[in-house]
Amino acid sequence: MIRSALRPLLCAVTHEAGQGGIARVSSLLWRVVQDLYPNSCELVIAASSGVDRFGWVNKMRFAGTVARRQIFRECDFLFFDHLGLARTQGVLPRFRRRPYGVFLHSIEAWTPLNHNRLRALVDAKVRVANSHHTAARVAAAHPEVGEIDVCHLALGSEPP
User: Domain holding 57: CATH number?
Assistant: First the structure.
């Protein structure tokens, strides 16, 4: 299958400007995915604007959307911009899950992890850390996760 025919799904915490480093990473990843897979990539946001942006309703809506897209084969692979989001893969039986990757940011992945986070990290087909330091700390804390690639973040220009 050629790359342009693939349908990636980027799963992001938020995509709003001014919402911190994870939102910035999400924006950069979205631009890269759009460049690599024009007209075939989709974005699913976990947190909407507002006071209750990380409330259980948003979490359930996000998990349901991600699960549905995989069950109905509406995507070929997923990429999560945060390890916490990848836990949604645990709600699906393995035979329904599409391959996925996860971006690792630092302490979120190198501290002791609960079962769901560790399973999400181990089961990921691709693990990308934002620095060699983060990759080394995650590998030392969780040697069972396997290879971790490094992708240094770039500043880039603000999206239009």
Answer: 3.40.50.2000
